[in-house]
Amino acid sequence: MKVKPFLALCSVGAAILTGNGAQAQDKFIKEGIWRGVFTVNEVQVPFNFEVKGQKASEASFALLNGTRRDYFVVKQTTPDSLFIKMNTYDAALVAKIEDDGTLTGAYKSLVPGLRGNSLPFVAEHGKSYRFVEPGKDQEPAANLSGKWKLNIISKDATPGRLALLEQKGNKLTGVIMSVVGDTRELEGTVQGKNFVLSGFTGPSPIIVRGTINDDKSLSGEMGFGIYLNQKFEGVKDRKADLPDPYALTHLKEGVSTFDFSLPDLNGNPVSLSDAKYKGKVVIIEIIGTWCPNCTDQTAFLSPWFRENKNRGVEAIAVGFEQKDDLEYARYTLGKLRDKYKIEYDILFGGIADKKVASGKFPSLNRMMAFPTTIIIGRDGTVRQIHTGYTGEVTGKYFKQYVKKWNRDLDKYIAEPAPKDALAAR
């Protein structure tokens, strides 16, 4: 995942966080399915959400993307204003309830000190479609189900991507994978020779638009928030694959050890040489709370650790955040800890920048992606480095990852701890 300031948007004023709660209950948004539309660089990006509950104090708000559901807390800050924090992502939907019941507002960053453009949106109740109104579908020119190899068109060398698509009639769902992660589940449609997908799960929205060419290849463009747009060409290729994620990041030649000293959320220095980690298998995840693949990886690691922590294994999360400020990191990483019930150490690495992260881990050839996961054996040697993360929506890729993870960790944990490590503890 390419790291840039997450949307770099205007801070939300503290005024929106206050208001008369009793009055706010008098005017709440309707229960049911909604259709929202962002305007991103003059392109409309639709998204769907569902509201349950007739007042903010008991309501749930869920973003809908294919089979995926992401839930958020709704706060009614004034009688006609809503504030929906995007969980661990330091951003929010800030909206006004109009007299006709529609919502108007913007997706805004909450990162202190960042400036830039917000993403305006409007939303209407009772509209469950995403792109095309019922009854207005056009017969699709092809069925796009399958694996697609996407070549990125750029003057700079850019790794390709894979698209795993499933089409039923006009409805299109799928995920796009890269060497550093995936887009999470996308939802869209095929209309004649045109196709489009969108996704919004809390981080900045994604839009994928394209054309089915006469030779059944694809041409299109992907947009990630307001910064990154990539044109691509695609061909269906069931044998296509991405580079081995276990071979992209490695120790520098001649280097055999890995260590660091970074502060925990209380400012206390933590190092792999601490007695706590001696003779244990140690899993290190290098993450950021702004990174959706990182939170997906944390959602996998945290319950795994709770089930296995008594087997001689430790874990450490090193967060690189949108401000180089420990107090801010204590807030963002603390939110991550609470949401995913993390029971392992969380450290602060610095500003979210791959060059900065590379400097904090000089034993590595480079920091290519957030997340990166490093596994240290009981003897203190690096056993495995995995770049990126592919979530459940990737199907067999996720299943292969989990199978290898459990097999490898079982093997590393079964190894005896060195006698000097046990003595040190």
From TrEMBL:
Subcellular locations according to the entry: Cell envelope
Gene Ontology terms, MF aspect: antioxidant activity; oxidoreductase activity
Signal peptide (UniProt feature, chain positions): 1-24
Keyword DNA-binding: no
GO terms under biological process: cytochrome complex assembly
Domain Thioredoxin: 251-407
SUPFAM superfamilies: Thioredoxin-like
InterPro entries membership: AhpC/TSA, Thioredoxin-like_sf, Thioredoxin_domain, Thioredoxin_ResA/DsbE_sf
Domain of life: Bacteria
Record's GO cellular component terms: cell envelope
Keyword set includes Disulfide bond: yes
Alphabetic keyword roster: Cytochrome c-type biogenesis, Disulfide bond, Redox-active center, Signal
Annotated PANTHER family: THIOL:DISULFIDE INTERCHANGE PROTEIN DSBE (PTHR42852:SF6)
Protein name as catalogued: TlpA family protein disulfide reductase
Organism: Larkinella humicola
Lineage: Bacteria, Pseudomonadati, Bacteroidota, Cytophagia, Cytophagales
